[in-house]
Amino acid sequence: MNKKTLAIFLLLAFIITAGPICKGSSQEVLEAMKPINLTYWRVFDDQDAFDEIITAYKAVHPNVSVTYRKLRMEEYEQTLLDALAEDRGPDMFSLPNTWVKEYQTKILPMPKTITLPYQVTTGTIKKETTIQLQTTPTLSLRALKTDFMDQVAKDVVLKYQATPEVAAEERIFGLPLYLDTLALFYNRDILNSAGIPEPPKTWAEFQEDVKKIAKIDKQGNILQAGAAFGTANNVERAPDILSLLMMQNGTVMTDENGNATFAAMPAGANLTNPPGEDALGFYTDFASPYKEVYTWNGNMPNSLEAFSTGRAAFFFGYSYHIPQIRNLSPKLNFAISKMPQIEGNQEINFTNYWVETVSTKTKNQNEAWDFLQFAAKAENAQKYLAKTKKPTALRSLVASQIEDLDLAVFASELLTAKSWYQGMDALAMEKIMSEMIENVVSGTQTIKEAIGLAQGRVNQTIRQ
Predict the structure, then answer these.
(1) 182-352+422-462 CATH fold
(2) How far apart are CA 364 and CA 114, in angstroms?
(3) In 3-state terms, the chain is what percent helix, strand and coil (to 5)?
């Protein structure tokens, strides 16, 4: 080996074995590199759903750690409100999509730019790694509307006025990691026994199938329900199901000011009854002993239990109901199909999902919003979706989920999925809708009376 070759060899050996040199002389950079711990509160998902995302984020921002806490749904809201009131709440937390408006004063909107320290490597032969503060733009409104499902922007973009001196503007108050939709679950064995080869695609077909399947004895006892459908108190997500029926039937749920209008006749409509009334009547007919489609009543068990134990052939639910059904009845021979539609009308589906937000109490706004943006990107959201088996909120991931046996139906409904409530108390709205259904079923109120009163009561929750 000659001297020139030896010199080159020694130089390469030095470059390979020498570690990166970290620079960061300014006080601002040193301050930004201090250890930060973000606290993150959610429900339903265990921490392992986020382990990969947290690890990947820490690789980019080694000074940032994330402490994840899972709470039970029944304790979540009160625990969160108490913590926020006492200034010990989380930096980031989740909310149902219909709660965003109610919690707006407790959420920091996404800033337009974020400044964070990054490791920057420069040089060719001699590599040097320095720590530099970089300011980058956040997700734009245009990108939100382009990348995510249509309903997302309607739920998370709200008017924001930082101070009385500046004009209000639209800002992003949350980002989803998934987007779930209502679908039709059906018992294959029951349909086979009734000679029904395929699940219903329209509500007219659904009515006929229910009549074929329902078994009622001479005393009026329901031995086998065609569907867990028609009441509120023992039907999972009954307000969602009824809302979907209303929207499919042409009901205008709210006006341009956000006021509820589901009891009203749409402008220019040439109909005998307002479409919301007809939807409510259609739904409650299945719980009326005087109707041909009678198949369900308030004495039946919860709809999830009835379906899981084979007492009901049809059940309307979300993707999160799949593991619940399998846990209750591992051997149940069931499948899932798209929600029935009204023949000749535009396809409409219903969505119910949670969004990730940043608390006004956080002292680390940039890091919190940067982490949520990071988690919501396709390459990271995929890690979460693979763990939780939930439908995506991103358009770019729909095609990959269409091939998934459990998620295919839900993924196929995403592009036509809608929601509607943007008031100040979603839980109160759901209770009002449920009481409206039960008042019609019990005969306490007529359909017109019940829906009119419900609309007025819902508007009180919107205008709070």
Answers:
(1) D-Maltodextrin-Binding Protein; domain 2 (3.40.190)
(2) 11
(3) 40, 20, 40
335 beta partners: 186
**Element at 169 (helix H, strand E):** strand 169-172
d(CA 30, CA 284) in angstroms, rounded, equals 65
The CA distance from 224 to 193, in Å, is: 12
Task: Tell me the per-residue pLDDT of 208-267, one tens digit each, with 9 for 90 and over.
Answer: 999 999 999 988 899 999 999 999 999 999 999 999 999 999 999 999 999 999 999 998
CATH superfamily of the domain spanning 25-116+138-179+354-396: Periplasmic binding protein-like II (3.40.190.10)
pTM above 0.70, yes or no: yes
Strand partners, 224: 215
| Amino acid code (one letter) for 35 | P
Strand pairing report for 36-43 and 64-71: parallel
Determine phi and psi for 351, rounding to 5 degrees: -120, 145
Give me the amino acid identity at 200. P
> In whole angstroms, what is the distance from residue 432 CA to residue 159 CA?
27
Start-end of H helices in 26-72: 27-32, 51-60
Contacts of 268 (CB under 8 A, 6+ apart): none
State the Cα–Cα distance between residues 330 and 335, nearest whole angstrom.
Answer: 13
Long-range contacts of 22-31 (CB under 8 A, 24+ apart): 22/119, 22/129, 22/130, 22/131, 23/128, 23/129, 23/130, 23/131, 24/117, 24/130, 24/131, 24/132, 28/133, 29/117, 29/131, 29/132, 29/133
